[in-house]
Amino acid sequence: MDLKLLEDNLYTWQEQLNRRGAEVDLKKVLEVYQRYLEVLQKAEGLRAERNVAAKAQDIEAGKRIGSELKELEDEVMAARTELDELVADIPNLPDKDIPDGGEENGKVIGVGGKPRDITNPRDHIALGESLGILDIERGTKASGSRFYYLKNQAVELEFAILRWLMDLLKDKGFELLLGPQLLGEKAMLAGGYLGKAADEVYKTQDDLYLIGTAEQSILAYHLDEIIPVPKRYASFSTCFRREAGSYGKDVKGIIRTHQFDKVEMFSFVAPDMSAREHEQLVAIQEEILQGLEIPYQKVLLAAGDLSMAAARTIDLESWLPSQNRHRETHSASNCTDWQARRARIRYKTESGESELVHTLNGTAVAIGRMLVALLENHQQMDGSISIPKVLHSYLSFKEIRQITVT
RNA sequence: GGAGGGGUGGCUGAGUGGUCGAAAGCGGCACACUGCUAACGUGUUAUACCCCGUAAGGGGUAUCGCGGGUUCGAAUCCCGCCCCCUCCGCCA
């Protein structure tokens, strides 16, 4: 949020933040901001005097001003700290045309594919375990709940999907990026992943944080830089999430786990391009799901369901036969300048000014959930799984059936 | 992990308490010159924030890896941290 514009937009912005249920008092923010500016001006004025005295080598005047200045500087620092803390918790302003309310108020704005008619569909756990490609029990033994092992063809399937995506995204002009999966505090803060969201993040004893998505390391890549736009990246990473506060949710299976692999798309664009870029990211996601032959619906999230950084988010929900409903497998967000402001990522306008970029991110594929959808939607009568055509050239098999290990 | 060296503008690099937001060179931009290009010449060339101004612009503050300290005054002195380089050790 641009504090310079806060006073003029106080009412509108407060309304917008209220829509997403943010507990933010912009009036308070404005107050602190103005107080900060006031003491800042005083301090700078005094410092100018001190500099004059210093230049004249007027030791006495310098001493006198210096002691006064010290107090003022402490005030400036205190106001700045208070302001920073307040601002850190202000989420992005939601887009004006998104629905009010929370998770249940998301609006279905499109569908793709048609669910197959499967009699007595089995769930991904039964399918995966009977095929010997998924072992949840041993994952739990090794690391506790919400961990799992993938085996044999499931492993091959994952790498096939990755290869396919790399080709697809490279073709679409994304640069491929493979980066750190541990990030420093500065990088995490810039993306807005600490602060209120800190519960979700694993921290190491060296004060590095395990990333919850490649989005974080892509953003960190251009931290503090002025870059040419548009710039598009696709990055693979393992993702680590504490899933604090999700007790009891999706405990069965691998829909919600502490660790999963994901390919993420990320765009840095000029502000006037971001709405269109968002649509394009979603279009790519749809192309991916269509390629994998998974039926889905497209959901425009309600204001109350947005993450801190997002102004607008569209989820793709894949059909899960065993649950007889759609579940989120993809998400694409326009974060406008929210992340860019914190990460100080700018571009040069035609007139030579540096302006904040807009950042957008979207799932290409989150392997865990995609595996769930693939197994369940492509199960056949005999419990085998058919592999979608787009992956055939990346695999030596066209279906997964039980293999006997001797 | 141990020992030593070092982090200065887009780049190279000088600067060890005031005359330093910072020499010089390169690069960039503008102008002039040339039949065109190149070279030469002249000028210009960091960022953030604050204030005044409709604006052009003007003034101020801060920034020499980051944070703190000493001092009337810090790129320069002191402390802590981060990063890079060299050597040794360890290691996929």
Automatic annotation (TrEMBL):
GO cellular component: cytoplasm
Pathway(s) per entry: Aminoacyl-tRNA biosynthesis; selenocysteinyl-tRNA(Sec) biosynthesis; L-seryl-tRNA(Sec) from L-serine and tRNA(Sec): step 1/1
Record's protein name: Serine--tRNA ligase
InterPro entries (alphabetical): aa-tRNA-synt_IIb (IPR002314), aa-tRNA-synth_II (IPR006195), aa-tRNA-synth_II/BPL/LPL (IPR045864), Ser-tRNA-ligase_type_1 (IPR002317), Ser-tRNA-synth_1_N (IPR015866), SerRS_1_N_sf (IPR042103), SerRS_core (IPR033729), tRNA-bd_arm (IPR010978)
Protein keywords: Aminoacyl-tRNA synthetase, ATP-binding, Coiled coil, Cytoplasm, Ligase, Nucleotide-binding, Protein biosynthesis
Record-annotated site: Important for serine binding: T363
Stretches assigned to coiled coil: 62-89
Protein family (similarity comment): Belongs to the class-II aminoacyl-tRNA synthetase family. Type-1 seryl-tRNA synthetase subfamily.
EC numbers for this chain: 6.1.1.11
GO biological process: seryl-tRNA aminoacylation
Species for this entry: candidate division Kazan bacterium GW2011_GWB1_52_7
UniProt GO MF annotations: ATP binding; serine-tRNA ligase activity
Enzyme class (EC, first level): ligase
Subcellular location: Cytoplasm
